[in-house]
Amino acid sequence: MSLPLLTPKQAAEKCQNGAILIDIRAKNEHQQRHIPNALSIPLADLPTADKQPEHSVLIFHCLSGVCTQANTALLAQYAQGCEAYILDGGLNAWQKNGLPTEGIAHCHLDIMRQVQIVAGSLILLGGLLGVAVSPWFFALCILVGMGLLFAGLTGFCGMAKLLAKMPWNQA
What we know:
single chain
């Protein structure tokens, strides 16, 4: 099942008439930059999250719109009994249209960038140590590669979950 797309201006109009915006990004990404009054319900939490009042209008969004469109079945299931839409282009399109956003200006890097930095560093370190010290260090590259492959196939990233618990990622 697919949900209809709304332009940022159409979504802003619906919000003025009582629609509820739901940001499906991770909590720390929401803190970094978000649409005022948008609810933060990360995609992983949707199946167990409290349902919004029936007969309300829900507008789901992520950063670029890709994640919301890729998960329309889950979003439609959550929105069952409600009028539901996806914000076309996500938060980036909202901001590009001159609509207001708010957040923490000095916020850290988002989790996925942190995962990329840590995974890249571990692979580089494993490769360098594998060449300079012992071929056994290549196992580090293989383990990180397997973790990234598993994350891509299942949508579960253990490294992201671990990084989210770090003190610098806490509100």
